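hi!! sorry for the late reply, been swamped w classes. u asked for the two structures so here they r. pasted raw, havent cleaned anything up. first the sequence of the first protein and right below it the tokens
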Amino acid sequence: RPYTTIERSLVQRLIEVGRNEGIRRIVGLVLTDNANMQHVLERVGFNIEQRYDNGTMRASIGPTPGLVPA
């Protein structure tokens, strides 16, 4: 199923809250088989940085214009 507006809205809200709280970087783990979430994260600017043997991958954003610069 393609990514939904609610998923994208929630991630964008997370970035907004982080920016307002002075957070410079957001990092999270995503299941490698969750292609929808990977797509959402990449679309809003997250980078997929590393894949782990346990079936997860690391995604992060920042410092970016959306977050407080370093």
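now the second protein. again sequence first, tokens right under
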Amino acid sequence: VLMENGSALVLSDESFFDWVHGIEERSSDKVEIEKIANKEQLAENVKENEELIRGARCSIVVWQGEYKTE
């Protein structure tokens, strides 16, 4: 998933607990169009092999209720 500036991705339930997710530690990304799952929803036009420089990013976790590790 390509995240555009000012966008957010919310994971909950099994998508948070069962899927592998995270923010890779690097300063840029090389565009590979066929690997972008949300290419039809992008506001910006991206080009194959274009280098996208990453800006500031953050990850926020909010818990509600009990956390069970079963």
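hope this helps!! also noticed smth abt the second:
Helices lie at 13-17.
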